[in-house]
């Protein structure tokens, strides 16, 4: 009987109970088994260290403050060039607003776990806290039906999105799907317009579209100088400029991520602890 009971428990587990949201400011949603796991220390940078994203920063910060205060707020899609601080901005904005609104939590949801998002929302719906549901590097490929789960969360469904949940997602693609996938739908569907509309309507359900574009050289150098000043790494401007430009040339790209990678190397060589 004990073995039968254990097997039934695995097949139909008991409803999840909400964790103690007061024990952490951030959580990660896991499946198999489904649970919200608290994160003791979030990997993030200070909001003031993010260079070249002033407009997106101000817009997302204002939207998040509205949400934390219990006012209407939009879901946000941060899209654009890789390595330009989309994910860092979400985490930094949360930290900035959470400092004055302790009830604001952030929950990370992996793209692969989107089919379980309905159960996650049911877990968050009755809580007193307010939650930023964060989905990083969101995109969909051919024969990927996960986007249908997300559409219901953003706008559709009878229950709709809980008032205490807002979704922030990052992606390299504005419409979350590769261009050739959209073009294929346009060329092969019985009604091309309707097929394309179904695909691109997902991104339309985000109230805020915040674009991120590749930085220029001055911004790239300003990022590194900001890191040096913040962490107390001494280096003269001429040496920094020469080394940083050589570093980005070897990488074949220039972005906030490349700036941080150069700074990490520099800090290690100078014996600084980050």
Structure in words:
By secondary structure, the protein is α/β, with parallel strands linked by helices. It has 2 domains: 2-212, P-loop containing nucleotide triphosphate hydrolases (Rossmann fold, 3-Layer(aba) Sandwich), CATH 3.40.50; 217-269. It is 45% helix and 14% strand. It has 10 helices and 7 strands. It has helices spanning 2-11, 54-68, 86-98, 117-125, 146-154, 179-188, 192-204, 217-231, 237-251, 256-269, and strands at residues 26-30, 35-39, 76-80, 104-108, 130-135, 165-171, 208-212. A 7-stranded mixed beta sheet has the order 2-1-4-5-6-3-7. Strand 4 (104-108), helix 4 (117-125) and strand 5 form a beta-alpha-beta unit. Helix 2 packs across helix 3, helix 6 (179-188) runs antiparallel to helix 7 and helix 8 packs across helix 10 (256-269). The radius of gyration is 21 Å and the shape is globular. The mean pLDDT is 84.
């Amino acid at each position: 009987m004990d073995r039968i009971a254990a097997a039934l428990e695995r097949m139909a587990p008991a409803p999840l109970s909400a964790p103690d949201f007061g024990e952490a400011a951030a959580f990660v949603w896991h499946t198999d088994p489904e649970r919200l796991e608290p994160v003791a220390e979030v990997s993030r940078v200070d909001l003031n260290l993010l260079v070249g994203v002033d407009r997106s920063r101000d817009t997302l910060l204002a939207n998040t403050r509205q949400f934390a205060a219990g006012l209407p707020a939009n879901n946000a899609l941060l899209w654009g060039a890789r390595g330009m601080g989309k994910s860092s901005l979400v985490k930094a904005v949360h930290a900035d607003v959470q400092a004055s609104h302790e009830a604001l939590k952030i929950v990370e949801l992996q793209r692969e776990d989107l089919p379980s998002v309905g159960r996650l929302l049911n877990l968050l719906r009755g809580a007193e806290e307010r939650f930023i549901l964060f989905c990083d590097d969101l995109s969909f490929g051919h024969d990927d039906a996960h986007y249908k789960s997300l559409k219901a969360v953003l706008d559709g469904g009878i229950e709709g999105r809980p008032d205490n949940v807002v979704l922030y997602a990052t992606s390299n693609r504005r419409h979350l799907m590769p261009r050739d996938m959209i073009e294929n739908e346009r060329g092969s569907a019985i009604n091309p317009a309707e097929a394309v509309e179904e695909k691109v309507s997902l991104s339309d359900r985000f109230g805020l579209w915040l674009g991120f574009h590749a930085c220029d050289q001055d911004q790239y150098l300003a990022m590194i100088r900001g890191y040096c000043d913040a962490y107390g790494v001494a280096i003269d401007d001429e040496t920094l400029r020469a080394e940083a430009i050589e570093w980005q040339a070897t990488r074949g790209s220039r972005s906030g991520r490349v700036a941080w990678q150069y700074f990490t190397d520099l800090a290690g060589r100078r014996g600084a602890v980050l």
